[in-house]
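Protein data:
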Amino acid sequence: MNRTVWVIAALALASGAGAAGISEPCAARSGPQAPDDPRLREWLRTLVHEVANQEGVDPYALEALGMTETTLRPWLGRSCEVGAFQVMPWWAGIFRLDSPGLLWDPRINAIAAARIYKDAWRRWDERFARAGHNRTLRAAGWRGKLDRATFAALTYNWGKAPKVFAQASDLRTVVIPASVAAYALRFSLALREARGRRRADSDTPRDRPTRSRAGATKAS
């Protein structure tokens, strides 16, 4: 990312210029900050799983979160969201980082996302499963009960969800932004795909040893 953009964004944060002041320098340069490289994505996927295991988060859920946010690519959001997990710069203060720029580090970005996601996971209430019948979620294509993993992802995207859900007498009528409902559905599909790949990998037979003409065992 262009260093000037970060300086302007940091100044906006420090001066309390508000969302518009922060967003303006980033909006013009928003989007992927690196080419779409499958090798980079696979490297990031491995890193994400490592971080998730260290942070006590389902690695496939964290992977799905990154895929939903940016398809696991270095990315700058229009409101200065940072990295593959689109972490807002103000989280740097909460995590006691010396600079918001450190959130561009892929490992730090993944750690921040894992901790935000885990906090949302802890705020689950079994009653929230009824939100699967919410009108907006159903309009987006959701079917069945809302699961805990998707609730945590929905909260990652829409931080007020736990409070709104807890205060609602009827979760079917909670006003969920359409973009949030679509996000929840994309996450659920990404999580299903990630877990499906895990099963496919575990079902793949390993190379069996064969014998050479001399009778020695060697890998096929």
